[in-house]
Amino acid sequence: MRNKRFIPLIFLVLAIVVLALPLFLKDLYHLHVLITVFLNVVLAASLLIIVIMGEVSLAHSGFVGIGAYTSAILVTKLSFPFWISLPLAGVVAVIVAVIIGFPTLRLTGVYFFLVTFALAQVIKLFFMGFFTNLFGGGRGI
């Protein structure tokens, strides 16, 4: 593809097709698979940004867990509407990531890798070990 003018048009058409897929998928299994694929694409793209910078982060799963638990608690326990809890969950995950990120981003190399691995484990242990009546412990919400 030599002409780069068509690249935004291709992405626009692709985005329209992807957004229209749930209208045509009647089977819930295929819709679930589609949603799972796109969630993993977003996670891979966010991890790629850090890898391009020359670092390897393993804390992405922890921040996804923070957002997921926040959204689930807001909807199930506090009766928030889903469309309000979804951006709020993202905001909470961003706030935690910024608080953790300031000291962590000063590290480089294997130290950054080890700290992000430890952060992922600490976040997992927090949700599994504390407030088990709220978070559900090992079974989750």
Structure description:
The chain has 141 residues and is an all-alpha fold. Helix content is 76%, strand content 0%. It has six helices and no strands. The protein has helices spanning 7-24, 28-52, 60-76, 82-104, 110-129, 132-135. α3 runs antiparallel to α4 and α3 (60-76) runs parallel beside α5. The longest helix has 25 residues, at 28-52. It is flat, with a radius of gyration of 18 Å. It starts with 6 loop residues before the first helix and ends in a 6-residue tail after the last helix. The mean pLDDT is 84.
Key descriptive features of the protein:
single chain
In short:
This protein is mainly alpha-helical and 141 residues long. The chain contains six helices and no strands.
Q: What's the number of extended β-strand segments? A: 0
| Share of residues in strands | under 5%
Give the overall form.
Answer: flat
Given as residue ranges, the uncertain stretches (5+ residues, pLDDT < 50) are none
Average residue pLDDT? 84
Helical region count? 6
* Largest beta-sheet characterization: none
* Class from helix and strand fractions: mainly alpha
In N-to-C order, the SSE pattern is HHHHHH
Cα end-to-end separation: 47 Å
Helix fraction? over 70%
Cα-based radius of gyration, to the nearest Å = 18 Å
